[in-house]
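PROTEIN SPECIFICATION:
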Amino acid sequence: MTSKYFRFVIGAGLCSLVLFCLSSLSWAQDITMAGRTVPPKVDSPLKFTGAGSCNQAKCHGHKSKPRANEYTTWAKAEVHSAGYSVLFEEDSQKIGKDFGLKGKPEESKECTVCHTLSIEDKPDLKGEKYDVNEGVTCELCHGPAEQYLEPHAKPYEPKGVTGDELTAKRAERHDQSVKQGMWNAKDPRTRLETCVFCHYQINGNMVKAGHPSLKFEMGYFQKTMPVHWEETPDKGEGFPAKMMAASQAISLRESLLSLKGAAKAKLEKGLLQDGFNQAQSHGNVLRVLSGIGIADIKAIESGLKDLSKSLGDAGALASKAEKLAGQAESLLNKMLQAKYDAGQVGKIVKALASDSHFTSSPSREDAIQAFMIVDGLSVDPDEPMLAAIDELYFGLFAEEKGQEPPAYDAKVFGQNLAAVATLVK
């Protein structure tokens, strides 16, 4: 097994306990999109037509042709496609039982809300080819296809058209599809919100029952997924830096909201500490970004410091976490509106790998974020850089399936991270 394969597994939020597991568990009894406007999820009145409506060879079901093999890539190589079937496996059943689910995982809203397109209780939204067994399918990221499916399938690229004219034609078609119900995954905000809705909603008690504790960093996730999209030139060369910075801000927001929920549920202090550590790891990364002029996070830093003093007071912790999540939301908006350039990618990696906190006393949460950022932003690394990234990886995760991860050594990780800084070009 190659390190690349295992990075893909970890990147998808998996562990040896539950291979191919992408679950999330909201803190709320009734899991809804209440209070969230992006993405619309199943609150839309449009029907979900099912992945089977996208799999024609002339559409997205071609065996290998780029821009025509998206369904094939998803079905054969994407862990999301196994999101529902994994709920039937022995490990998942045990986690559900230990967590105290009243029913089976495959029938429980707490699990199906993120393991599949969960509209079993909404028959009016089911299209002809809807199939709950498809798992995390096309329409969970791209929206219900009832209105855009047929127009979207019609040819629109005139023969011989290339360059800017072809790009414009594709953009025109995309805009038309968005007007007909497609969710605009080209938009950074929509893309981020779609992912964190599941990847950052884990309940501490679920982790205690055996569910993997999911981590998130957008650039890393996109790099480790089998690619079925292309980033168009209009996004600019600084787009990776933009997505990384915004990913940290939205992850801080979500980790704080999860901490608020944990405090309200009066979970044990150890779980509250874990939740705080996760939020703090994003704060530490944002501090590094602030140091190179990408954001001003003095208020966030002060808020996290104050928050750490309330771990013994659930009421105060919940209130402060909610307030700070609002500040993280404001920071996210600023991150998305800021200007970025290609040179900032190398600056981010070098700054992070040179930062005294990350090279001397990083928590394991800090280390995981640092690894994912370095790997996610390192496009086509040379052999020395790839070897250095491997050292970071194997200091955090098991080399083989079924093995226990190594004991985390902050000093060794810091030294390996510092080595990365010397290789940044």
In short: The chain has 19 helices and no strands. The chain has two domains: 18-211, 238-425. Confidence is low (pLDDT under 50) at residues 1-36.
